[in-house]
UniProtKB/TrEMBL annotation, chains A, B:
SMART domains: TOPRIM. A zinc finger (C4-type) spans 58-73. It comes from Aquimarina celericrescens. Coiled coil: none annotated. Belongs to the RecR family. It comes from the Bacteria. Residues 81-176 form the Toprim domain. The gene is recR. This is Recombination protein RecR.
Length: 206, 206
C-alpha cells in the first residue's frame, strides 16, 4: 500500500498493530476518524492515553482498578475466604454478570503456555500461593479455560498447594444450557456423565 | 457489561465508536494495549493525535496530503488535463497501485446519498465544476462505485457540465479478470456485452 501522506501511513501502521486489525481495516478506521469531528479523535486519544498511564492493578486480586484495592476486594459483603482463579479481567466480568458468585477473585494474567513462552513466573501465581499459605482461604475455585494450557495451569497451582487445608474445586464442565445432546462433543458429554449431579441440585440451579 | 474501572470503561466506549468495532472487540483491543509495553499505546496515541491535528487536504484534488498540494498534483510528469473523479483516498490508492493511470485525481469525499443526508453541497463538487469551467480539462473519468449512489453522483456532475467542451468517460464495468462467466450477475454480463471492446484492445491490455 502506498500512502500519499507520511502522517496517514504512520497512523495506519500503529492502528494495524492491534490484534485482528489488518492494514486495510486500519486505513478504514483512520479515514473514519478523519471524517468525524476532531473531538472524537481527541476523546479516543485522551481515553487511551489516560488509561495506559494511570490505570492500576488491584494489589490483592491483580484485576484492573482505579484504586489500589478494587471494588470487589474491598466489598466486605462478599465472602473473603473463597477465591475464584481466572485468567484475565474479562473472565471476572463474565462471572460477575451471572450474579451467582459472591466471593473474591484472583487474576493470573494468563495461563502457563510454554509454546508462547509463558511460564509460572510470568503469572500472578506466587501471590496466590502466599494467600493460601496464610491460611485464610477456605476454597479455591479454578475457572480457567478448558484447554490444555488451562488444565496445565490448574495442575501447577494444585501441586504447589497440595496438602494445605484448602478445598479446591473447578467450575463444572458439561453440556451448555439450551444445547442439543447430539451436537455435543464426546469429551464434554463423557465428563458430564461422569460428573453427574443430583437432580435436586439441578432443580435449584438458576 | 459492567466495568471495574471508569478509565477502562471510557477507553472501551471510545474505541467502540469506531465503525465495525463492538464493545467486546473494543475491550479485547484495550486489554491488549494494557498488556503491551506503554510505548505502543504512546505511539498509537501520538500518531492519531498528530494526524488529526496536522493533516492537510490537497487544495487542488482534496486528497489527504502532508503539504498544501499533494505529490500527485504537483507532479508535472502527469498529464494535467485528465481528471479521474473518485470517492475517497482509498480509491486513489487503489488506482495508483495499478500503475495504469498517469493523470490527476479529484476526490469528492463521498457520493450523493439522500438516505444518509449527503447532498451535492456536502461534496467537493463545485471545485470540480470550476476546474472544468476554466477549460483546462480535456477528459473527466468517473471512477465511483457501481451503485445507485455512485450513478446518481455521476449523473449530477454530468448535468452540471453538459455542453462544455470536455470528454466524459467512466471506468469499464464488466467481468472481473479470472471470473467464471456462469457466476457473473446478469446486469454485469449484460453491460459487458453491450460495451464490448475490439479484441485488439483486449490483447494490448495488461
Amino acid at each position: 500500500m502506498e500512502f500519499s501522506s507520511k502522517l496517514l501511513e504512520n497512523a495506519v501502521y500503529e492502528m494495524s498493530q492491534l490484534p485482528g486489525i489488518g492494514k486495510r481495516t486500519a486505513l478504514r478506521l483512520v479515514l473514519h476518524l478523519l471524517r468525524q469531528p476532531k473531538a472524537q479523535t481527541d476523546h479516543l486519544v485522551t481515553a487511551l492515553g489516560t488509561l495506559r498511564s494511570t490505570i492500576k492493578f488491584c494489589k490483592k486480586c491483580h484485576s484492573i482498578s482505579d484504586e489500589d484495592i478494587c471494588d470487589i476486594c474491598s466489598n466486605l459483603n462478599r465472602s473473603q475466604d473463597t477465591i475464584c482463579v481466572v485468567e484475565d479481567i474479562r473472565d471476572v466480568m463474565a462471572i460477575e454478570s451471572t450474579g451467582q458468585y459472591r466471593g473474591l477473585y484472583h487474576v493470573l494474567g494468563g495461563k502457563i503456555s510454554p509454546l508462547d513462552g509463558v511460564g509460572p513466573q510470568d503469572l500472578n501465581i506466587s501471590s496466590l500461593i502466599e494467600k493460601v499459605n496464610e491460611g485464610q482461604v477456605k476454597e479455591l475455585i479454578f475457572a480457567l479455560s478448558a484447554t490444555m494450557e488451562g488444565d496445565t495451569t490448574n495442575f501447577y497451582i494444585y501441586k504447589q498447594i497440595e496438602g494445605l487445608k484448602v478445598k479446591i474445586s473447578t467450575i463444572a464442565r458439561g453440556i451448555s444450557v439450551n444445547d442439543e445432546l447430539e451436537y455435543a462433543d464426546e469429551v464434554t458429554l463423557g465428563r458430564s456423565i461422569v460428573n453427574r449431579i443430583p437432580f435436586e441440585n439441578a432443580l435449584k440451579s438458576p
